[in-house]
Design a protein that fits this description.
Rossmann fold, 2 domains, 10 helices, alpha/beta, about 50% helix, disordered C terminus, Arc Repressor Mutant, subunit A, 6-stranded parallel beta sheet
């Protein structure tokens, strides 16, 4: 394990899932599970001891839930990325998590590689959501006032980049896009980087939101 490994702390009251996730993550070269607990009351102490780079919380934990714990930890000075990892795909839960300061919202049925990718991107400063939640995030942002005229930016994209942007708008992961287009995962990642650069965006979530907003625009109907 390298010295610059990403240190992760897990808080989930489901023992089997927590231990399984810890084993999965610890098997990655650049990720180390620095602490894991099923007891929210222990979280603050473990956080101080482990000093993780990213915190992964279950949403529905006794006694008060993951978001209450997140607010408590933030009150104690926690400011690094927190990802919610849950079974709930409800838009209200997504909205509440983002309002509470979560950096991302992941689902427990995601592919393990996608969870790892989300952790890495969150540490780099990106907001990450499960592919299945992308359109719900768009719905939340529709009233947010991002009305900049960026239609002309689409002209900079190649046909393949437009194709991949369409898949991003459908909430598909890089792996799913690679399968659909019969290209390599690395090729998809390269195209996504080019798309973000050309559209002046910082994350695939923003790219998906941009794409959906373009399709919903009266000029695009």
């Amino acid at each position: 394990m390298s010295e610059d490994s990403i240190k992760v702390m897990l808080v989930d009251d489901h023992t089997l899932f927590r231990k399984g996730l810890a084993e999965l993550l610890d098997g990655r070269d650049n990720i180390r599970v620095a602490a894991a607990t099923g007891a929210p009351a222990e979280a603050a102490r473990l956080l101080d001891e482990a000093q993780p780079d990213v915190l992964v919380l279950d949403l529905n934990m006794p006694p008060h839930g993951g978001l209450a714990l997140l607010r408590e930890l933030q009150g104690r000075g926690w400011s690094k990325p927190t990802l919610i990892l849950t079974v709930s795909d409800a838009e209200d839960d997504l909205a509440n998590a983002m309002r509470a300061g979560a950096r991302g919202y992941l689902l427990k049925d995601m592919e393990p590689d996608d969870v790892v990718d989300a952790l890495q991107r969150a540490v780099r400063g990106e907001t990450v959501v499960a592919p299945a939640m992308t359109l719900k995030l768009v719905n939340l942002l529709q009233g947010g006032g991002k009305n900049a005229a960026r239609d002309n930016l689409l002209a900079q994209l190649t046909a393949r980049e437009r194709e991949i942007l369409d898949h991003l708008a459908q909430g598909q992961s890089n792996k799913a896009i690679a399968r659909a287009l019969a290209i390599s995962h690395d090729t998809v990642k390269l195209h996504v980087r080019h798309i973000l650069s050309k559209l002046n965006l910082t994350s695939r979530v923003e790219a998906a939101v941009f794409a959906v907003e373009q399709k919903m625009s009266p000029r695009q109907k």
